[in-house]
Amino acid sequence: MKTEVQGLFERYEGFFLRALAGEADMAELEELYTPDYIAASPAGVMSGKIDARFRQTLLEGYEHYRAIGTRQMQVRHIDISPMGDSHCVAHVAWIATYARPNRTDAKIDFEVHYLVRVEGGMARVFGWVTGDEQAVLRRHGII
């Protein structure tokens, strides 16, 4: 399971970097996510499908990240908590780099907890739990 999950987040990181460059291949989502997902943050809990609406929301999100100066998103570390043979929680520590006008770049460490399903040798995200991203960005003077 560890190998499959690490491979998933290598692909995820690459996808994120290409999306920041405006080169997102939305067909890659099929390799990263299951068709349905659940998500939780301080704003609440939601569920949905990886569909045209989700893809458009993601594209708008990456556009927003570019607009606020996001330059890089890099996986720093992954801890895995297995839940049976087919599922785990991947605790992914990220480092985000933001360009700031007339100041040095800001580097922010944060963690996202991904719910992952491994099937047929392929790991895919089916959910995630995040903290308050907007509060962190405000605290670091990004927004």
Overview in brief:
The chain is built from four helices and six strands, in the order ααββαββββα. It has helices at 2-20, 29-32, 52-67, 133-139; strands at 33-41, 44-49, 70-83, 87-98, 106-119, 122-129.
Textual characterization of the structure:
The radius of gyration is 15 Å and the shape is globular. The protein has a single domain, classed as Nuclear Transport Factor 2, Chain: A, CATH 3.10.450. The model has no long low-confidence stretch (mean pLDDT 94). The protein has 143 residues and is an alpha+beta fold. A 6-stranded mixed β-sheet has the order 2-1-6-5-4-3. The chain has helices at 2-20, 29-32, 52-67, 133-139, and strands at residues 33-41, 44-49, 70-83, 87-98, 106-119, 122-129.
